[in-house]
Design brief:
There is one protein chain. By secondary structure, this protein is an alpha/beta fold. It has 13 helices and 17 strands. The strands form five sheets. A seven-stranded mixed β-sheet has the order 6-12-11-10-9-7-8, sandwiched between helices. Strands 13-14-17-16 form a four-stranded antiparallel β-sheet, with helices on one face. Strands 1-5 form a two-stranded antiparallel ribbon. Helix 1 (7-15) packs antiparallel against helix 13 (407-422) and helix 5 packs parallel to helix 6. The chain is globular.
Length: 424
C-alpha cells in the first residue's frame, strides 16, 4: 500500500480497520481536555472498561460470601487461575497444561531458574543479551552468586557489533556454539525493551538445546505482542508480565510456561501448598505432591483481586485473536514509520529508527534516535497529549498498540512532532 501523510488518508485506514471499535473499550487519560495519543503500552497498557466489572464481582463475592467465596463464588477463588489456561495458551502458543499465572515477572524467573539453572562441573554459564532489562541483569548476578560463581565469569553477554543497534542472529548462534559444553542456560528477552528487536526464539532455542543447555525466555515485551509457539518451538520455560500489552494493571500478575516434557520430571523447585495436588490440598498433608503441569510450580494462595483484571484482558484477547492483532500491528507500525520519515523531510533534525526494518524482527514498537533534539522535545510532546517514553541520551520509544491506537493518532502525532521541532 502507498501511504499518505494526510488526515483524510488516516481516517480512511481507520474506517477499514476491523479492530477500530476496540478503542472505545479502553479508558484514555486526557491532556488539555483531549484524549491522549498513547504510545506507552509497552510499559503499561490502558485500562479496559470491562475491568471494573471483573474486580467488582470479586469484591461483591467477598462481601456476601467471605471465606465461602473460595468455593461458592460464581468464579470460585480456589481454582480461579484455571480460567487462564485456555485463553493464555492461545496467546503464547502452548498447551493449556503448560501455562499458569502467579506472582510477578522477576519472582517467577527466579523460581523457574531454581528448576532450570542447575550449574554443575564446567557447565555453569548463562548467555543473555547485552543490555538486557536491568531486572534480568540483577537476577542473573544474584543467581550465579548464590551458586558460588562470579558474574564476570558465569554471565556471557551477546554484544552488538560496533556501530550497530541490534544483535545479529548469527552472533547469538556463534556465541552459543563457542560456550558449548560450559553453557547451562540461555535466557534472553523475546523482544528487547530498548530497541524493540524481536529475537528468533525458535532458532535460538534449538541451538541452545543442541549444546546441552536449557533455554528460557523473558517475554515481558513479547506476550500479547508477537506470534508465539512456545510448545512447538520446544522452549523449556518462559515468563511474562501482564501489564504491558495485556493491559491488566500496574505491577500485576505474571504468566509462566513450562513445557510438558518437564511435567513428569524430578526437577527441583521451591514448593508451596497452591502447587500441591488440588484434590488433596485442604487435607494439609506434610509431603508435597505437585499438581501435574505448570500449576505444579504455584506456591501461594493466589491474589484473586489482582487476577480479575488479567482475566478481563485475556478474554478480550480471546475475542480478537493474535492473528488479527498482529496484522494490524504490522500495518499501523509501518504507517507510523512512514509518518516519521515524512516529518523528517520537513525538519532539520534527523530521525534514526533503531528498531529493525524487517517485519520478522520487530513488533509494536519503534525506538527513534532524535538527532539534534533533546529532552525538551519529549517534554513538549507530553504537554501536548502524546504519552511516550524517553530513554537517554535522546531516544523515544513509540508503541502503537493495535487494540487502542488509531491511524489518525499516527497522523496527529506527526503534526505535533513537527510543530514541537519547528516551534522551538
Amino acid at each position: 500500500m502507498t501511504f499518505q501523510n494526510t488526515r483524510e488518508f488516516a481516517r480512511e485506514l481507520d474506517s477499514k480497520d476491523a479492530l477500530n471499535h476496540y478503542q472505545e473499550q479502553f479508558i484514555f487519560p486526557k491532556v488539555n481536555d483531549k484524549r491522549v495519543i498513547y504510545f506507552t503500552g509497552n510499559s503499561l497498557g490502558l485500562q479496559p472498561k470491562r475491568t471494573k466489572a471483573y474486580i467488582d464481582e470479586v469484591m461483591n463475592d467477598w462481601a456476601e460470601l467471605a471465606v465461602e467465596g473460595h468455593f461458592y463464588a460464581e468464579k470460585p477463588w480456589w481454582d480461579y487461575q484455571e480460567r487462564f489456561a485456555e485463553p493464555l495458551s492461545k496467546i503464547v502458543g502452548a498447551l493449556p497444561s503448560e501455562v499458569t499465572v502467579m506472582n510477578t515477572l522477576t519472582v517467577n524467573l527466579h523460581l523457574l531458574m531454581v528448576s532450570f539453572y542447575q550449574p554443575k562441573g564446567k557447565r555453569y554459564k548463562i548467555i543473555c543479551e547485552e543490555k538486557a532489562f536491568p531486572s534480568d541483569q540483577y537476577m542473573f548476578q544474584s543467581q550465579v552468586n548464590f551458586h558460588g560463581y562470579k558474574p564476570e565469569d558465569a554471565i556471557v553477554e551477546i554484544k552488538r557489533r560496533e556501530g550497530e543497534h541490534n544483535i545479529r542472529l548469527e552472533d547469538v548462534l556463534a556465541k552459543i556454539e563457542e560456550v558449548g559444553d560450559e553453557l547451562a542456560l540461555v535466557l534472553i528477552g523475546g523482544v528487547n525493551y530498548y530497541t524493540g528487536q524481536v529475537f528468533d526464539i525458535k532458532t535460538i532455542t534449538a541451538a541452545g538445546q543442541k549444546v546441552g543447555a536449557k533455554v528460557g525466555w523473558d517475554l515481558a515485551h513479547a506476550a500479547g505482542n508477537i506470534k508465539l509457539e512456545l510448545h512447538n518451538w520446544n522452549v523449556d520455560f518462559a515468563a511474562w508480565c501482564s501489564y504491558k500489552y495485556m493491559n491488566s494493571g500496574p505491577g500485576n500478575a505474571s504468566g509462566c510456561f513450562v513445557h510438558e516434557k518437564h511435567h513428569n520430571s524430578n526437577l527441583p523447585r521451591f514448593a508451596g501448598w497452591w502447587g500441591h495436588n488440588k484434590e488433596r490440598r485442604f487435607k494439609m498433608e506434610p509431603n508435597f505432591d505437585p499438581v501435574h503441569g505448570a500449576d505444579g510450580w504455584q506456591i501461594s494462595n493466589l491474589p484473586v483481586l489482582s487476577l480479575a483484571p488479567y482475566l478481563a484482558s485475556v478474554e478480550m484477547f480471546a475475542e480478537v485473536g493474535m492473528d488479527a492483532l498482529i496484522a494490524k500491528r504490522d500495518h499501523i507500525t509501518s504507517y507510523l514509520e512512514f509518518i516519521l520519515h515524512e516529518i523528517d523531510k520537513e525538519v532539520e533534525s534527523t530521525f534514526e529508527i533503531i528498531t529493525p526494518t524487517n517485519l520478522e524482527e520487530r513488533a509494536s514498537q519503534l525506538s527513534v534516535f532524535l538527532h539534534g533534539e533533546g529532552r525538551a522535545l519529549f517534554d513538549y510532546l507530553m504537554k501536548n497529549g502524546v504519552i511516550t517514553d524517553w530513554r537517554e541520551p535522546n531516544v523515544i520509544r513509540l508503541a502503537p498498540v493495535p487494540l487502542y491506537c488509531s491511524y489518525e493518532d499516527m497522523y496527529d502525532f506527526g503534526q505535533i512532532l513537527k510543530k514541537g521541532i519547528l516551534g522551538k
